[in-house]
Amino acid sequence: MFVAIIFILIIIASIWFHIWSPWWWTPVASNWGNIDTTIELTFWITGSVFVAVCSFMAWCVWKYRYRPDRKAEYKPEDKKLEFRLTALTALGVIALLAPGLVVWNKYVTVPDNALKIEVVAYQWGWNYRLPGDDGVLGTTDIKLINDENPYGLNLDDPNSKDDILVMDADLHLEINQPVKVELRSYDVLHNFYVPQFRAKMDTLPGLITYYWFTPTKTGDFEVLCAEYCGTGHYAMRGKVQVDEKADYSNWLAQQITHEKMIAQNKKDKKLLTAEIKN
Amino acid sequence: MDEENNNNKIETKAADSSSGSYVPPADNIPASEIPEQELYHAKSFWTRWVFCQDAKVIGVQYALTATAVGLIGLILSWGMRLQLGFPETFSFLGPATYYQSVTMHGMIMVVYLLTALFLGGFGNYLIPLMVGARDMVFPYVNMVSFWMFLVAVLVLISSFFVPGGPTGAGWTLYPPQAIMPGTPGSEMGIVLMLISLSLFVIGFTMGGLNYVITILQARTRGMTLMRMPLTIWGIFTATVLALLAFPALFVACIMMTLDNLLGTSFFMPEIFTMGEQLGTSGGSPILFQHLFWFFGHPEVYIVALPAFGIVSDLISVHARKNIFGYRMMVWAIVIIGALSFVVWAHHMYVSGMNPYFGFFFATTTLIIAVPTAIKVYNWVLTLWRGNIHLTIPMLFSLGFIVTFVNGGITGLFLGNVIIDIPLSDTYFVVAHFHMVMGIAPLMVIFGAIYHWFPLISGRHLNQTLGKIHFWISFVGAYAIYFPMHYLGFIGVPRRYYEMYDSPYMTTGVGLNQFITVAALIVGFTQILFLYNIIHSAFYGEKSEKNPWKANSLEWHTPEMPPEHGNFGKELPVVYRWPYDFSVPGIDREYIPQHVAPSEVPTAKVEKT
After folding, report:
1. Interface of A with B in 167-206 (CB under 8 A)
2. Which residue of B108, B416, B477, B499 has the smallest Cβ count within 10 Å?
3. Could you say which architecture CATH assigns to the domain A115-272?
4. Going from the N-terminus, what domains does chain B have, and what CATH number goes with each?
C-alpha cells in the first residue's frame, strides 16, 4: 500500500512540477516557434505514456501485493496483446517522428533571400563578418591569418574587399530578415547558440557549417558557446542585438570594411616605420 | 590424438546410458559428446585469492575495483555540484578543477564503473553459474583480463598526480581541444587517459571473448539458448556489442595519442591558436566524433542490456510469475543491440556533419523505441496478476522501471533531430543520460546486489538499512534529475563552470541549490550501503539455500556460496526455462530448471 502510494505521489508530483514550475523555455524570438510546437506534441504523447505505464505499475503493486493464498497467473505469452502494444507504439513513434522530420527539412533548407553572415569563433570569443553590397562573403583560409589579416581573408578574391568586419562580440541583425549564419572556427570546436532563437550548430576549424533563422523580436540576446571548448568555455559569451531596419542601417554604416582596414593598416605601418626612422 | 578423443566420446556415451536405468521420453536430453575438461585448482593463497582463475573470484575482484573507482567518481560529482549550487563559495574549485572533475566523473562512471561492474562483475560471477558451466572457458585469460583492468584503473588514477593534472576535455575527449593547451590536463593527463582506455579495451577483449564463448560453447546439457535466463541474454548481447564497438574507441585513442605525441594530423585540421599557426593540416575533428560515438552509442546499451536482463529476472522471481513474453524479450534485446550500431550520429546532430544525416539517424533512433517499449510493457505485465513480494530487489526493480521510462521518453525528445537542436548541449541532455544510463542501471545494480548477496557471501544484507538505502536513493535521484530537465528547457548549457550573470538563467539558482543538496544526501546514503555490505558480509543474518526460491541454476549448487567448479561432481541437466513459477496443476510454487518433467508429471507447463 505504502509503496504504491509513494509511486503514485511521484507521478503526481512530476505532473504538478511540469505544469507549475517557473522554469520553462525563454519566449521564442525567431521563426523556429514550430520547434516548440513539436516539443509540446512530444510532451503530450510521451508524458501520457509515462503516466500510464507508471500508474499501471503502481496499481499492480497494490492490487497484486503478496498474499499467502494468492497464486500468480501462469501465462508465458499473449501474442495478441503483444502485437497490439507493438503496433500502438509504432504509431506513436510515427506521430513523433513525422512532424519532427518536416520541421528538420525546413531547418536544413535555407531560403534564397537569406542574408549570409559569418560567425567566427576562437578561444574564447566571437567575431563576425557581413557581406558588403555584393552580398557575397569573400573566401578565407586559416593559413592566411596574421596580424594584418585577422580573418584569414583571401586577398585575391574581389568579393572580400567590401566585406564588413565586426571585430567585437556584439552582432546586430535586422528584424524579419532571414539570415544564414556560416560558422567558422580558428582553433577548436565551439557552438553559436542563442537560446531564444532555438537554433545551434558547432563551429569547427577547417569546415564551414551553417544554419539559418529569422529573428522576429527586437532586443538584446545573449550568445552562449554550447560546445565545450576549454577552460574559458563558460566565459565565451557574446551578444546579438536585433534592430528595426533604420537602427540596423545606422549600425552597419559604422562598421569597417576589409578594404578600409587594409588601407588603415598600411597607414599605421607607414607611421610606424617613419617613427622608427626618426 | 584423434583416436584418443574418439575413445573418450564412446566412453562418455556408454557411461551415460548405463548410469540411468530408464529415462522417460520427456526427460530425454542428449548425452554430451565430449568429456569434461579438468579445471586447474588453485594450490596456494596467492592463486586462490589474488591471481585467481575462478570466474567468481574474478567477478568479485572486478566489482570491488569498479566500486572503489566509482567512489572517486562520486566524490568528483560532489565537487561539481557544490560549484554549480553555490558558486564562488569554494576557493579550491577553479574552472580547471571543475572541468577535470566533469571529465573524470563521466569517464569513470561510464567505462570504469558501469561497464566493468556489469560485464566484468556480474558477467564473471553469473555466466558460468547460470549456464551450468564449471568456469569460463579460458580461466587464465579471464584472470589476465582483470589485471589489465586494474592496470588501466591505476594509470587513470595516476593522472591525478602528474603535472597539469588529469584531462579536463570532457568525457567525450573531442579533439582538437582535448590535446590543445586551452584545456586542462592537455600535457600528461590526456595521454594517460588515452593509454588507460586502450588498456581497458585490451583487458575487456580478453574477458569479453570469455563471456561470449562460454555462453555459446559451455552451456550444460539441455540449456538451449531459449532456456537461458534473460540476465545471460542481456550480458551476452552487451558483450557482443562491446567486442564490436570498443575497437572504434581503441583506434580513436591510438590516433589521438599519435596526434598528441608525434604531431600527426589524424584529427587535426589547420589551426590558428595563440597568435600562430599550429602546423597541423588535413585531419578531421568530426572523424573522431564518428569513431567515438560508434563506440559511444553501443556503450549505452552495453550498460543498459545487462540491466534489462537482470531486472527481468529480479521482477519475475520476486513477483513469483514467469517473465511475460520471454521470446519477445530475447528478440527485443537482440534487435536493440543490432540497431544500436546504426544510431550513433544522433549524438552529432549539431556537430556540423552533413545535415541530411539527420533524417536517417532520427529515424533509426526512434525505431529503437519500439523494442525498448515492448520490454517496458513486458516488465509491468509480469507484475500484472503476479504475487508481488516487496523485497528490496523488487523495490529497486520498480525504481528502475520509473526512472527508465522517464529517461527513455526524454530520449525520444533528443533522438528526434529537430527537437535536439535547442536541447542538445544543455542540462536536458545531462538529466536524460543520468536518468537513463546512470540511475536506471544503478537501480538494477543495487537490486542485483541485494538479490545475489546471499549467494556470494551466504548472508543477507540488512533489510532495514536496505529499505532506507532504496527510498533515499530512488526518491533523491529522481529529485535530482527530473527538475534538471527544466534547466535545459531554459537553455542552460552543460559544462558551464558558472553562469549566473545571464539574465534568463538567474531563475535557475534556487533549483541548482536544491539539486546540489539532494545530490549530497543521495551520495552520502551510499556510504550506508557500503557499510551494510561490509558489515553483513561478516555479521549478516545467515541465508538458507535459495532464499528467493528462484529457478535458475546458480541457486542450486551443492554448496552455497558455490565452490570452485560450481556444481560438485555432476553438472546439472536442464529441462526447462528458469521462469516456471506458480505453474498450475501442482502444489510446489516453483520448478527449478534442473527438475525433470517426470518429477512434476501433473504440472501444466508450456514447453520451453
Report:
1. 183, 186-189, 191, 193, 195-196, 198-206
2. B499
3. Sandwich (2.60)
4. 51-220 (1.20.210.10), 545-608 (no CATH)
